[in-house]
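DM from R.C. (forwarded with permission)

"hey, sorry to bug you on a friday — could you get me a structure for this? deadline for the figure draft is monday and I only need the backbone to look sensible"
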Amino acid sequence: MLDRMVAGVVPDKAHTALRDGSGRLRHEECLTRGGFDGPFTIMYHLERPHPSVPVTAVHGWEIPADTDDEPHPLARRHYLSQELGRRGGAAIDARVPLLFNDDVVLSILHPDEPDPVYFSNGDGDDLYFILAGGGLLRSALGDLPFAPHDYLFVPKGLPHRFIPDEQPQYWLSIECAANFGLVKQWRNEVGQLRMDAPYSHRDFRRPLFTGPRDEGLRELVVKRSGAFHGFRLPHAPLDVVGWDGAVYPWVFPILNFRPRVGLTHLPPTVHGTFATRGALICSFVPRPLDFHPQAIPCPYPHTSVDCDEIIFYAGGNFTSRKGVGVGSFSHHPAGVIHGPHPGAYEESIGARATDELAVMLDTFAPLRATKDARSVEDPAYHASFG
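My reply, with the result:
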């Protein structure tokens, strides 16, 4: 959560009557986190927000299941998501999960149609990285435009839909089961982002609220416990006249991340951008490199015995890796020493800058690959390290 916003018309005090000019009562809805102990947002609807009729859900994506009995030896792996068949359609139907554990699910999607229903993820927060394309996220809290190289956050439990533009779309989705937020070390004791943080509150874009809207859509799909549930609504769910709170979607352009540079190579934690249960999400952006005369800018070989490391390559030249391209995932599991490709360590000496662009995750629980991921795996990757 970022900070508190106020948009539209709200009463002077929460849980008190808000009426229009004719005396008609507005209906309050509280979207809460951590029960009632965490961040929350209060919305004021024209109609009662909670009536609904269960219907069959006809939208959703294939949920990964841990049912693969084939042996998969421990190895460094490389998945080429750019070789997946492009499955278009609406965003709610287009996710292709590739890697997952109980904390996060990483998927690729190429939506090319607006969502025909509203969607609420009751299983977790969704963080998207827009590799290519753009469009609009629409919710009762307003419209939020997004563009290439944006992170886009959609909070758990918020009904919304995507309206992609006409460009080819290529999105990374990270579904986070719990405790998603900014890295705590970058906040001060009142929750403000510190002056030495790699981003500021000004770097984030919030929804543009324009008041109640009726798109004529009355179907809501809710994902809960790994299944999709349909509901028919009697009223437009975007009938909000005002809201205030700290739970809302936002956009953060990855190039707004201010990278740290050191005398010698710094560990990836300095690139920490977001945190969720069981994972740290990092941003690698173009930057100067280490400035000691004998510095080796290339990451040193390391045995990270507690974490799987995933890197999603978004652009530029990654000094430590050869053979990866835009859309590649490298997966270096805990228990296997990993480091730069042969020659990269020595060749990096004297380099003064890097143009790499990538999203990295360190996960504490092992990540499992879906059959879709294995269908685009580079079988020669582990051996390429010599």
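R.C.: lifesaver. The two ends are 44 Å apart (CA to CA).
me: no worries. The chain has a mean pLDDT of 93.
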